[in-house]
Amino acid sequence: MYPELAKYGDVDVLISGIQADVDVPFPVNYRMYGMSFIFGKRGGVDIFETARRLKLFRLLKDIREFPVEQYDLVINDFEPVSAWACKRKGLPCISLSHQCAVLHKNAPPPASGDPMGKLVLQRYAPVTAAYGFHFKAFGENIFTPVIRREIRELTSVNEGHYTVYLPAYDDAKIVKHLSQFKNARWEVFSKHNKQPFVSGNVSVAKIDNRAFIESMANSAGVLCGAGFEGPAEAMYLGKKVLVIPMLTQYEQQCNAAGAAAMGATVIKTLDEKHYGTIREWLENGKPIEVNYPDITAEIVAKIIKNHVPFYKQINKEKISAGV
Prior knowledge:
There is one protein chain. The protein is of the alpha/beta class and about 325 residues long. The protein has 14 helices and 13 strands. Helix 3 packs across helix 4 (about 80-90) and helix 13 (about 295-305) packs across helix 14 (about 310-320).
């Protein structure tokens, strides 16, 4: 999105939160502590650690002081500081995110309801207009995923290994369970790893963007959490996909339902009772075929035309002139 937005004017980037694993390939003007849900090591969000690391007064101060009024357009990817700053000052805030697609009435529903989780998703970053991304375009202003150029430039082949990214599980648990499948080679990328190591048929390395996407492009399949970008990129590369949604995380439960609708295999947790499903996926799982065209320029143009006053006026003049 950044290069397309930059075609229309100056772009300042705000990033908040403390859970990022990789750097972004563009300048960041604001880095804020924000509010993050902290991954645990047992398959879900660590509620205690999330509460412990919350700096509420700092969050409120950042919201109060962030100068949203200086900008012609605020585009928000589920980020609370800029969203609440806009709401506080009565300014428009445009969502361009996967989360707003999850909340769409046509989105595949999760297997079980979670009213509190849904409420958090609705209130975390309030916006005035929404453009969303999901595994499938199923409604107005809902689009197929934005696939990074570095992913689009990869050549997908099958070298026989399986790429793994499960940030809500610790390395010992992942190795314990995956090592039970002796005929598979697992390349695990870990949020918790300090030193790479190999244990039988499982190799573990710290998360590194280039190494991860190359492993994924060369894999037979991808085992990952039920985020959005990871499964979407694996589908784009034509891999078979197995997802494990984080426990007590409503968005990931929704994502799992959406991924299943595309042909991905879903298990609730990484443990012995799901070995049969994992084995079936390894032996008989099918690659997922999708068509995710690059429509980034069109989406950005639509947002600019609809929400930037200068471009809205030009559009009105064109319409009145019959152009």
